Amino acid sequence: MLNYYHTHLFTLIALVAMAEMGLTSFLINRGNLHDTWFSARYHHLLILALFNSVWTTIFAWTYVIWILNGAMHLFASIAGSALWLLITAILWGTAGGVIATTRGGGDCNGDPPLTRCRQSMTVMALCWTEFGLCLLTLFAACMWVSRSRRDYRGAYYVPA
Questions:
Q1: Transmembrane residues, as ranges (predicted)?
Q2: Rg of the chain's alpha carbons, rounded to an integer?
Q3: How many domains does one find in the chain?
Q4: What is the pTM for the complete model shown?
Q5: d(Cα 103, Cα 120) in Å, to the nearest integer?
Q6: Would you report the helix, strand and coil content of the chain in percent, each value rounded to 5?
Q7: Quick check: is 52 in a domain?
Q8: Per residue in 141-153, pLDDT tens?
């Protein structure tokens, strides 16, 4: 049962990371081309978000492939995925929080749909989405482990 949900959650994590990768690489390319940045710090934060999305995409797809192949690899275990999810959640939470404080402007009301403000808000929203998905998957794994603890009494045990 866990493999079923884990596979879907990790696939969703990978797909959101791929969307983040496309958007951040576009914004980095566009900013380098026209030399238009909110600040130098924002440029570095976009590179951090790009690194996070590449990291997440590689490891999430690797985990999905290991689970679907039934491989008993160290990193395909619950402990391995929990460690990976914790590290990834910390990376995404840090990126989302720092981007939220660094991003220029706040409200994009009245701006056309395809503006730098809205694209920047989308980067931040995808960071928080990845953070939430990682925590949800980590919570689901922990709940599965706590619910599937075996009762070490043998089948011969009859309650008094």
A1: 12-33, 45-68, 74-100, 121-146
A2: 20
A3: 1
A4: 0.82
A5: 7
A6: 75, 0, 25
A7: yes
A8: 888 777 666 555 5
